C-alpha cells in the first residue's frame, strides 16, 4: 500500500496544470429591473355589487394608477420604461398591472404590480429619502386607496398591506447575484475562452 501510495504521489507530482486567462474581459453588467407587488385588502366590501360594472378591472387599474401617480408626484416610485418605446410615464406607472380577487364573503383584495425605482427613493420637493414600501404604506393609512368613485363599494381598506419585490433581466441577460444582470454572450465567451486546463502525465489508479 505504501508503494502504491508513493507511486500515485509521484505521478500526480509530474502533472502540469496550465490555466490560461485568454480573452478574460470583465462581464458586461447592468442593473436588474425591480418589480414591486403589493396587496390592499378590503374586509367590508359590497362584493355583490361588483357585477354591476362591466369594466370593473379597468376601473380598478385607473383608480390604483391615479393613487400611485399621486404618490409619484412627491416620491419617485415609478420607474421609467426601457423597452425602446415612447416614454409615456405621465400616463402610466412602471407598466402597472392590477387584478382583483374575492378572498371570502365581503372580503376583496386588489393586487398591483409595477416596475419600481430602487431604494432609497427621493422626495421631489425636499432633500429626503425613503422606500417604496414606506411611502405606499403611508399613503394607504392616509386614505389614498379609499375611493369615492365606483370603487367606493369596496369600503375602507385594511391599514396594513402585503408587499414583495423581485429583480429581473431583459432578454439576453442573466441575473447575477441579487440585483445585477450579466450579458449571456459575455458569460458564454468566458466559459469557452476564459479557463483552459491541460494535464500532462499518466495517472495510475
- How many independent structural domains? 2
What about the largest sheet? Answer: 4 strands, antiparallel
Q: What integer is the average pLDDT? A: 80
Range of strand content: 25-35%
Distance between the termini: 12 Å
Q: Could you tell me the radius of gyration in angstroms?
A: 28 Å
* H and E string: HEEEHEEEEHEEEHE
What is the global morphology? globular
Index terms:
single chain; 4 helices; globular; disordered N terminus; four-stranded antiparallel β-sheet; 205 residues
What topology emerges from the helices and strands here?
Blueprint (H helix, E strand, L loop, with lengths): L1 H12 L2 E5 L8 E3 L1 E10 L13 H19 L22 E8 L2 E9 L5 E2 L6 E2 L1 H10 L20 E7 L4 E4 L3 E4 H11 L1 E5 L5
Antiparallel strand pairs: 1-11, 2-10, 3-5, 3-8, 4-5, 6-7, 9-10
Please give a structural write-up.
The chain has 205 residues and is of the alpha+beta class. It folds into 2 domains: 2-27 and 174-200, no CATH class; 33-168. The protein has 4 helices and 11 strands. The chain has helices at residues 2-13, 56-74, 132-141, 184-194; strands spanning 16-20, 29-31, 33-42, 97-104, 107-115, 121-122, 129-130, 162-168, 173-176, 180-183, 196-200. The strands form 4 sheets. Strands 4-5-3-8 form a 4-stranded antiparallel β-sheet, covered by helices on one side. The protein has a 3-stranded antiparallel β-sheet with strand order 2-10-9. Strand 9 (173-176) and strand 10 (180-183) form a beta hairpin. The model is unreliable at 1-26 and 191-205 (pLDDT under 50).
Amino acid at each position: 500500500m505504501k508503494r502504491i501510495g508513493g507511486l500515485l504521489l509521484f505521478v500526480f507530482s509530474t502533472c502540469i496544470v496550465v490555466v490560461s486567462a485568454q480573452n478574460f474581459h470583465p462581464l458586461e453588467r447592468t442593473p436588474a429591473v425591480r418589480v414591486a407587488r403589493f396587496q390592499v385588502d378590503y374586509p367590508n366590501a359590497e362584493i355583490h355589487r361588483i357585477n354591476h360594472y362591466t369594466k370593473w378591472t379597468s376601473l380598478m387599474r385607473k383608480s390604483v394608477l391615479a393613487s400611485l401617480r399621486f404618490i409619484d408626484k412627491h416620491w419617485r416610485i415609478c420607474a421609467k420604461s426601457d423597452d425602446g418605446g415612447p416614454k409615456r410615464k405621465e400616463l402610466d406607472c412602471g407598466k402597472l398591472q392590477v387584478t382583483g380577487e374575492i378572498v371570502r364573503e365581503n372580503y376583496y383584495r386588489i393586487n398591483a404590480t409595477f416596475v419600481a425605482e430602487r431604494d432609497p427613493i427621493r422626495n421631489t420637493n425636499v432633500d429626503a429619502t425613503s422606500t417604496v414600501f414606506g411611502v405606499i404604506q403611508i399613503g394607504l393609512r392616509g386614505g389614498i386607496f379609499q375611493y369615492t368613485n365606483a370603487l367606493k363599494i369596496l369600503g375602507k381598506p385594511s391599514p396594513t398591506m402585503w408587499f414583495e419585490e423581485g429583480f429581473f433581466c431583459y432578454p439576453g441577460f442573466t441575473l447575477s447575484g441579487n440585483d445585477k444582470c450579466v450579458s449571456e454572450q459575455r458569460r458564454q465567451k468566458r466559459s469557452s475562452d476564459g479557463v483552459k486546463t491541460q494535464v500532462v502525465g499518466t495517472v495510475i489508479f
